[in-house]
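Interim report, section 4.2 (structural modelling).
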Amino acid sequence: VTTALTRRQLLTGAAALGLSTAMAGLLSGCSSGSSISTDPDQLVLWYWSRGVNTKLLQRASRSIPGSPHMSIRGDNVGATNYDTKFRTSLAGHAYIPDIASVNSNCSLYFPDEQLFVDLNDHGASKVKSRYYDWKWTLGTSPTGRQVFWPMDTGPTGFFYRNDVFGKAGLPTDPTELTAGIRTWDDWIRAGQQLKKRTNAAMIMNAPTVFTQYIGASKVRYFDKDDQPLFEHDDGTVKQAWDTAVRAAKAGVTGNLQTTTDQNAGWVSGKVAGHIEGAWWTQVLHDTAPATKGKWRIARQPERPGSSGGSFLCVPSTCKDPDAAVDFISWLTDPTNQAASYNDIQLFPSTPASFTDGTMTYGQRFFGDQDPLDFFGKVAPDVPVSYVSTYESHVTAFTTEMTNVEAGGKDPDRAWRDAVDETNRELEKQGVAA
Amino acid sequence: MTVAAARKPATASRPASRTASRTGGRPPGWRRFLPQYLAIAPFYVLFLVFGLFPIVFSIVLSFMKWDGVGPATWVGLAQYQYLVTDPRFWNAVANTFIIWIMSTVPMLFLALVVAFLLHSNIAAKGFYRLAFFVPNITSMVAMAIVFGSVFSDSFGLVNSALTALGAHTFGWLSSYWGIKITISVMVIWRWTGYNAIIYLAGLQAVPTELYDAAKTDGANGWQIFSRITIPMLRPVILFTVITSTIGGLGLFTEPEVLFNGATGGPDEAGMTIVLYQFNQAFTNFDFGYGSAIAWFLFLFSVIFAIINWRLLSERDGLKTPRKLRKAVRA
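Predicted structure of the assembly:
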């Protein structure tokens, strides 16, 4: 009887412990409200590695310039599934950061823009002129609220292998090459010469041509009322499609569809060019260090585009939106953006950072050419455009472009399939095609 | 329901009388077992929160349109209506079953051969057992990098070997069948050792007298394998078939890491049901549709569970409902 009793006591004890632990976990989730930090004077910022300059974060962790009574705590939550993490906190009304980084897919949040403060209500409009107009506009919601604040940018250029272009008898000087590839047809013709003489591809694949063409266009998939434009025969999307198909048919795209192949392409020189944002400089350093000194950057045909580049936003649950905007404004002022470039190569969204004089590239990956100087001149020419929230449903176009290039699918059929598939998905989302 | 109702009075009355006669002052009914209930409560509390609630909630969600953040709207059966006519979904279903067959059949056969060899008298048995199990515990991300390099179209080892042999290269990561073969090879590589260990356990339970008798009668290796080993292993094989079916229907990690996200590769040739569900829920943030896909997957799983159960019950001579009915009529 004694042993039975002790066992029962043990079981009860274990159960009580287990239950109280579970309840404590649940209750602590409820009691802390929607904020992460219980300290009323501390704002929590969510970011990912190399997304925000940690040196500046450290300075603001003591006190926010402009709002000295408040401080910042930076939580690096990792880039993997960042949107899922952020959206989960928003959906749960709990553990929401007071300030959050958001990537170039910020339009994803436009339907739920009421969950964020209008930064204009807290003094954003006063410093608007500091930033590139096109970058600022990308953070403006369709209703005109300023939901996202420019962080870094990705003005695009045509990266190319100087040595390989020389062997093909093409201009090696960036200015000369820029003059030689003013239109996409010029660019394709140069690619054909490159292919014929060196067997190298101009770019890794056709979907990249398609995507970067659209990235450099004033009009994209939807108009400002989110009405679809992609079906129009003379629209941007069709032009981008036809250009990419022409490039693929001319044999100037590399048909490299996986990261492994693409990296090998640049390292081996089988792919002698790429169109990508300024931040790709750093990627190239890491991917193909042995090709140092052999790369140059020219302007891409027609005009530069925008690819990547992040934003900062303030959820409406923020403890002190004024202090949050003070912090963001300080973090992204021209001087600090120049510092962020020097520390972690975030390409500035403020033109004044380039005239500041403190920003240096300090490497010779592009020979005598300074990519800072290049992209600083290119960035003002990026067109103002509107990225609709429904652009998350247009992936069928790049999928079908891959089918054309890798699978030899008839381009006209692929185009029709892409349009049909997109319309089907949009209809599901309640957008009339 | 009727069975349960009929039984209830009997079971309810028995403990009551027992309590009265044998244990005197103890509290009656469920409170007597309160400590036991409390002891198992932590599991059930966690299961309610992280298991049952999401399951029930996903049923509700599948009738709604919800982006995961804003307000959810009731759409009735619209998600299911879209699903039955969604070519991307049916492509994912076809892919899942093709990859499942392409991976499971060779995998189980290889596992059986490996187990048979490991069971025989060879040197360094422990080393081989460990070596065959290592793929199962290898990081999937590391594995994806290796497979990506081996099968990559333009710079991969396999295509380089093919070129060296004078053969044509093949789009292992870009063509419809190439992608399926690559994913199947990944599955086979990862799970053969695991199944071999299970078979090995089954082999060790086979009485050695049977082998000795067969050898005495002059049976060769193949005859022993096909006439003794396989029949004796039947329940174990059935078990591995069932677990492989579960794994095959839920195939997700391999295509996800191979194509670095829920894209399924060119022409979505590597898009599986679970990957498509993930794509819709966590890339498109269409949680209603993701839930509808999950419930269709549940339906497929039920169908396969029934098939497996029937196979199992007939093998063991158990009565299926039809046989039962026949017996009653007789």
